[in-house]
Task: structure prediction
Amino acid sequence: MATSLQEPTFLIMAALAAEPRHGYGVIQDVAELSDGRVVLRPGTLYGALDRLTEQGLVAVDREEIVDGRLRRYYRLTDSGAAVLSEEARRLATNAEAAVARLRGRTRAARRATGEIA
Amino acid sequence: MSPDRARGTLERRYRRLLLAYAPPYRAARGDEIVATLLDLAPPGRRTPRPGEVADLVLSGVRQRLGVGSIAGLDAGFTVAAPVALTLAAGISAYAWWRVEPAPSPLGGLPLFGEFRTLGPIAYACWLVAAVGRAILRPRLSRPLVAIAIAATLALPLLAPVTGIDRPPLWVLMALVGFGLIAHLGTGPRATGGAAPSTEERLSVAAGVVAVAVSASTVTLIWPPVGGGWGYYYQPTISRVGVVVGAAVASVAVIALLRLVQRRPAVDWLWATVLLGLPSGWLGPFDTAGLRLAADRSVPHFGRLAQVLLASCVAAAAMVWLAQRRSPGAPARPPAGRGSLAAAGVAALGCALGLAAFFVPAAVVLRGLPMHAVLTVGVLVLVGAVAGPAPSRRTGWGILATAAAALAGALVVAVYDNGWSTTGWTDLPHTVALVCTVSLVPLSACAVTAARVLRATGGVRAVGGRAGATAALCVGWLGYLTLPYVLSWGPVLLVLAACLVAVIASRRAAAP
Result:
């Protein structure tokens, strides 16, 4: 996948990066990763998981029954990890470039202030 | 109520909402989704929250339609959302500013304060929604769009109660269409609740002013007959349509530029056709000159026909774009003999439904206009050429489509009769207008035949039938529309944009 992921998709994949998680776990982790900014609803989450599973980026890891409720765990596949890694690298490069430009702006502002002073 | 009992009630209600999903999906995923919902619910809750209801119903419908696997659709909504909200609020600002203030007295009609209609109620909501988009987080601004949609839908219900007029339905329908795009494009699926950029916030605010001022300028340059700002129906729709058409064309140009720069463009192509649908409801020029009193073989081709056909072109562009699947998604079976037969069933069903309307009309009129007979004849011919195999299933399909066509015919007839079911004043005109219902199955047949031709590569057994079906449908539609193509005005811009999206989609990379 040569192009950028949408933010919710990126966060779902990031939530599954370290270990397999079930739906509730993914929702909690996405909220934590995004500092509470992105709160997924179950319909949206399972739609995204279906799409990622179809694309081979996510796979079902195992199933458990806890308190009579079905918990299906999902894991990131190798190709999913590769896509996430590429996207993370792309975002990091963009962020570094932006920070570098902002540093330049701060220096220029200081110079301007010095001249005025 | 005990916690266990409350839990049981909540679970039962969640499971009822899961009926939105297809049964096989429910069987495979239902328990898991309900478990997650119950994990998220605080103890003691017995009723799903409105947000959960909307999420499950919408997700279920998406699952049934298979839209989750369409490449670029979600991203297309995200791109189209700010444009759609800008257009809705801009149209509202223009109508409130230029069209609503009533010269007094207005023929004795009751006014809404100083205004002609109840429109300012909805217009205020759209402007608040646009301001909300500019200054609030999506979680707070999105409900404002829902409120504006609800207020717009409420006007046709309020009008008979208050006795005060409402804006024309075409304007209200376009506002609701743009609002739905804005709402869906700012949902958790699109952005995950992330805030829009400062640039986008400013663009929405500036865009609303630009749309209102542009529409006003167009009206000044091209004043309505009789001068002034005219009344809603003709001047507003066509003048606003010029601006809306230009906006959709601009989105198509951006998509093309991205293609030239070898950047992902499918989201922009989707945005073009999504915006193209409600935009097609605005803009046909004055249709008064289109009455064809002399030529009795052609049905009256007025605004309804133009709007129906523009909607069909936008829908066909969506079907074409939807052929692109997300990478890894299972491919859909290619269109073949079965698809063509299904199109034939639709044509035959529509012929039967229209005939069911025309027969009693013929009794009252003591005869039937030639164009009505020709319309039914063309539909039967298309159905025969597409050639559904005779079977019980075909019969039921024809009956179901006939019922839908008859319902459509009745709606159009009541619409033509001023939303009244009594006192039919101009039945010949109503019969002519009902003929335009046939545009929908004929367009669907043309698209299906084109898809079959593409999929089979013109294989003689299927390709011959598909080619003949396409030729019949396109020929009849062209015969109806081409002589009046200039009267489409700004809608031509929208249609050109949709066609560009279809042609360019082959070269576009998915987002």
Notes: Chain B has 19 helices and no strands. Residues 289-297 of chain B have pLDDT under 50 and may be disordered. Chain B touches chain A at residues 29, 31-40, 51-52, 55-56, 58-60, 62-63, 68-69, 74-75, 78, 187-195, 264, 326-330, 509-511 (CB under 8 Å).
